[in-house]
Amino acid sequence: MNRIRQTRGEGDGGQTLVEFALVLPIFITLLMGVVEFGFMYNNILTVQYASRQGVSVAAQVGGEDGADCAILKAVEAALQTPLNHSYVQAVEVFESDGNGDKISGHFNRYVRTGTMDCPGTGTDQPYTLSGSEGYPQTSRGDSLAEGLDLIGVKIDFTYHGITPIGAGRTWGVTDGSTLRIEPKQ
Q1: Are 91 and 100 in contact (CB under 8 A)?
Q2: Per residue in 3-35, is it b (16+ CB within 10 Å) or e — as a string?
Q3: Which long-range contacts (CB under 8 A, 24 or more apart) does 127-132 make?
């Protein structure tokens, strides 16, 4: 009887190898999916952080001339590695209603092409105003007498897959934040 058990035990090596060969591709696929999701989620969090940094600066500078340059500079500084800056499609600075929604026609959309001259800052930004200025910088309500605007910053970003699971695929990421402009003294 011991002889039968030994014979049966010797054949288990082939069965284990077949099971391993069947499970390995599933395991690798799941692992690549988790890694891809991790990279994508990192980029989503970075875009959220950048929109919050941009709107924080927007609330502070209010209706000053050159406010959008300061906002774009804050957004660029917050977009940290491993996020690829060239995948930023656009940044919008907009007037918001009480619900945080963009008021139609009251926005400036900056696309990431060209160079925007920012006088007095010493740096240019890699953005160009798309269309007309629908939310003029100097007409933003930043005094208690005139009323305070709610201002928002929205970033459009395209995530490009990195792992073999996501290679060749893209996902759009959009995030925005709004704040009340701080009153000027």
Answers
A1: no
A2: eeeeeeeeeeeeeeeeeeeeeeeeeeeeebeee
A3: 127/72, 127/91, 130/90
- Ranges of beta strands (E only) in the chain are 88-96, 102-111, 128-130, 142-143, 147-148, 150-160, 170-180
**Strand-pair partners of 147:** 143
**pLDDT truncated to tens, each residue of the chain (185 aa)?**
555 555 555 567 688 889 999 999 999 999 999 999 999 999 999 999 999 999 999 999 988 888 999 999 999 999 988 888 889 999 999 999 988 899 999 999 999 998 888 877 667 889 999 999 999 998 898 888 778 899 999 999 999 998 888 888 999 999 999 999 988 76
Closest CA relative to residue 149, chosen from 177, 183, 175: 183
Residue 181 per-residue DSSP state: P
β partners of residue 178: 152
